[in-house]
Structure formats: structure tokens, C-alpha cells
Amino acid sequence: MEEDDVELLGAEAGGHGLGTGRHAATLCAGRVGVLHGARTYLLQDEDGQILETHSISAGLDYPGVGPEHAFLKETGRAHYTAVTDDQALEAFQTLARLEGILPALESAHAVFAGMQKARELGPDGFVVINLSGRGDKDVHTVADAMGVRL
Amino acid sequence: MAGDPNLEATATLALACERGGADILELGVPFSDPIADGPEIQRAGQRALKAGTRPRDVIDLAARLRATTDLPLVLMAYMNTVLAMGLSAFAERSSRAGVDGVIVPDLSLEDSDEVREALDLVGVDHIQLVAPSTDDARAKEIGRASRGFLYAVARYGTTGTRDALPEDLGARLGILRRVTSLPLAVGFGVTTPDHVRSLVAAGADGIVVGSAIVKFAAEDARPAAVEKFVAGLASALRA
Fold first, then answer.
1. How far apart are CA A132 and CA A73, in angstroms?
2. Within-domain flag for B162
3. Which end of chain B has less Cβ packing within 10 Å, N or C?
4. Do A49 and B85 touch (CB under 8 A)?
5. Does residue B33 belong to the interface with chain A, where contact is any CB pair within 8 Å?
6. What average pLDDT does this structure show over A116-144?
């Protein structure tokens, strides 16, 4: 965090896309408010009513975000991008095929953003992806999404 | 709950409560995520939101009630709805509508300075809550920060009708009485006239009844019936 020459990138749940309202991209599309004891970015309407969110990954399907992320965004230390359900599924499959690792669907969002970043930076760049969880728990969800019967 | 099932009904209900002997009227501002509330008030909030009730509508309702009653009016609003309106806008509009007090149930003491200042500025009481888990030193600080009265939450958990009151309330109120000179109002779970009688005996200056009335009115909204229900509770105050 203190090493300023290391860029921090966060991947949020873009769900069906930011334009659809069916997502959970709190930092990209939310506003500061107070929910569940924390002052952070929230997906809310103009009256402060909390909005329904959607993500293929349960862990990201929440209208708030950890206040630490809110702080990192506000100070400009980290940047956040929205990754859609389809993109997360694509990354899930890519990592499984190329590395034999099943990422959690939550982490698959980061894998997608990481792959995009790697393309941007080119062969001389370094990208570290935090693979925050494993995807055994998501096998049925992915199978459903791919139309595969297990 | 303001707007359950619509604002007109709430106005009628409020006046029925007054006729039944209510001394203070509390209007709930419906919120999508009412973490302090149990099933009755959660459902009431959902109905109110479905009817399109907005926070500004509740303040407008207060203004309309203010024109017809002298009873103190208290708004119950979760912090995010206050913030979304803008703290000073919320305070100003509440004051202009004739609101006397505001309860923000998910605002802790440490975070309440701005809210208290904004409300102090316009002459509206910021009513604080103490929980059964609040220790004496903290209760004293909360008592100092509270305005109007101190709301002593009777039980752990959320609002909601219950069969029995917790056992140690007399002792609890005794401790609170020693740390604040504000009137003590007790609420969460008060359902029957017997509960009211017990709380008066335990030393409460005021009793807050929410879910029981919301539940009654949801089943029978006739003003005369609600008035009678409230009268039953209110009469236990003097018994």
C-alpha cells in the first residue's frame, strides 16, 4: 500500500452491465451513505433507499463496500473497474483451462481485470492478481450459466 | 409507519391514537433496510415504500398533523435517509413542519455530534437510545447528549410484539435514573396494558408502543378500534 509505484486495481461486480441497474458496482456507481454501521459507498436512490443489487457471485452481491476500499478510492490510491457476470465467467474458464485453477467467482472478477491490465502493460509489465478464493463452491453456478448438466 | 398503507391512513391513525390517549406521536420514515426493526415494522415499511412514500412526504405529513394537533411529533428516521436529504435540509424542514424530536436508531453516540448540532440549531430534540448492553458510564454520556427524553430500549434485538417483558427493568431504570435527569421512555416489545403497568411500576416516565399498534392497525384500521386499543394501553398508565 505504501509503495506508490505499485498500482492498485479493484474489480467490482458489473453484473449485467452498469447501464442495466442489475449489478453491484458500488464504487463505480454508488454514493456515500451509511448502512450497517459503516459510512461508505452505497448503491442507493436519491432518497437514500438502498437499491437491489445483482451479481453472479454471492460475495459481491451487496449494495455497500468495505470502507477501506472507499478510502482507497477517495484518496486515489486504488482505482476500481466493473467486470460483468459474463466477463467473470470467461475469466473463470480461462484460468481453469490455462492453469488448472478454479477461482471463486468473486475472484474471477479480479482475474478478468488482471488479464485486461496485463494486455495493457504488455510483456514487460508485472501484474499480481489476488486470488481471494477457490471456486469449488461455484461449480454448480458456472455449470448452470454454461448450460452444462453435472 | 408513515405511508402504511398510505399517508392519509397514517394521518387518520395518528389522530385516533391521540383520541385514545397518546401523549406523543412517533412517525416512522420508511427505509429499505430497517435493521432495528422486527417483522411488524419491517412489513409496514415495505408497504409504505411500495405506496411510494418518500422521506419528504413524512415531513409534509408531520406539517399537516401539526395543523390539527398540539401533541409532540417525533420522527424515526434511519441515518441514510437523513444524509440523502442533507442533514441541514432535514433539520430545517423538520423544524418548519413542527416536528419536536427525531430518533435515528442506527446512529451511535460517537457519530452523532453533527446530527445533534444540526437539530439543536433548529430547536428539534435529538432523542438518543440506550441499549440493555450500555454500561453506566456510557449511559451517562448518552444521557448528556440526548434531548427531550432518553429512550431506554427494553430488550436485546429488534422491535416487535412480545409476550413478556425482560425481568430486570426496574433495576435498569434505577441506574438510568441516576445518570440522567431526562425523562425515561421505555420501548421495544411493549404489547399489552399489563406491560405498561409493569413499566410504570418499574419507574418509566414514558412508554413507547410501536409494533403492537402497527400490527393492530394492519388487521383493523377502523379509527374507533385503534382508538380503543390505544386507550387500553394508555389507561394502564394511570391505573
1. 20
2. yes
3. C
4. no
5. yes
6. 97
**Structural domain harbouring B71:** 7-238
Measured in whole angstroms, the distance separating CA A144 from the mean position of its chain's CA atoms is: 20
Q: Is residue B48 in some structural domain?
A: yes
Binary contact (A44, B84; C-beta < 8 A): yes
pTM: 0.94
Residue B30 lies in a domain: yes
Task: Answer whether residue B1 is part of any domain.
Answer: no
pLDDT exceeds cutoff 90 at B168: no
Q: What is the pLDDT of residues B178-197, one digit of tens each?
A: 999 999 999 999 999 999 99
Q: What is the ipTM of this complex?
A: 0.94
A52 to chain B: nearest residue by CA?
Answer: B32
Residue A147 CB contacts under 8 Å (≥ 6 apart), including other chains? none
How many C-beta neighbours within 10 Å does residue A86 have? 15
- CATH number, position B88: 3.20.20.70
- Give chain A positions within 8 Å (CB) of B55: 47-48
Chain B, residues 100-129, CB within 8 A of chain A, namely 106-108, 111
Grid coordinates 430488550 are at which residue? Answer: B155
Do the Cβ atoms of A47 and B49 come within 8 Å? no
Which residues lie closer than 8 Å to B70 by C-beta, 6 or more apart?
none
